[in-house]
Specification:
alpha/beta
Length: 330
Amino acid sequence: MPANLPPEYHKIEATLRDAKTAAEKIEICEKLISVIPKHKGTEKLVALYKSKIAKLRDEMQRRPATARRGPSLRIERSGAGQVVVTGPPNAGKSMLIKVLTGAEVEVADYPFTTRFPSPFMMPFENIKVQLVDTPPVTSESMEPWFPEMIKTSDAVVLVADLGDPDAAGLLEGIISGFKGKKAEFTASGAEIPPEKAPFLKRTLLAANKSDLDGTGKAFEDLNTLLEGPFDRLAVSAGTGFHIQELKRRVFDLLRIVRVHSKVPGKKAETDSPFALKQGSTVMDMARAVHKDFAEKLAFARVWSKDGALEGLRLNRDYVLRDEDIVELHI
């Protein structure tokens, strides 16, 4: 009897290959079991996942306890992209992340409140972006793992304190320090060759505390004094000024398109789109759904957000646009 697995199953199953920890694998297996249709043709598949869960739990229990060596400095990716948030002491990074994500982030009025990197999820429309809060950095104080974290991220938000008269000087020192470690910043619209991708990151400068007196002039001075091709935006974590615009700019840094899958004869699944790199094709979408779709793909029907495409039949080389709806046919 055929299993007749729904598209949601293949979407979840594709994430299992990227899961790193036993806990992540267990969670994904449980999700798979919940979406598998319950009939005789799927009994063996359900039993397989239940057996896998049991083995993973046994592995977790048998794993010997080891002495803690401090925090993990490698943050597992999650969501549509990973953006590292960095800046000098007391720039308001943690408060900014708290406002952007709604998470409970430790915030205080003294420097070095953030001691270790921590991930938080920022909702933006129908996706979530991972923001990594990091310890403050200066030209004299930079943890050896920090540049490597920048290199493995997708983009960077550099936070400045508009209330600090030496904001430009502090940022110049930080930028120079990262450059010495082969991690450089560039504009959000920059084209980055693949060979330079680990060392050159699209960056947005978020000039925080714009609600303070005199910061309008301070922002102008910062733009004049601070060299660098990256984009700049005055924001305020305290009043919420430009927070929604900041979310949009962070999304733009990722250079991705959101693509929705559609089962023939049914409505599109618009609440959980695939996040693909700009320039991705119908074939890339098929690979993201499941390898079987990529191997057997015949054609796709595409609906565009602007209405220019209304279920038009297209080949596998069609370049997808943000918010396209794709119906794969095999």
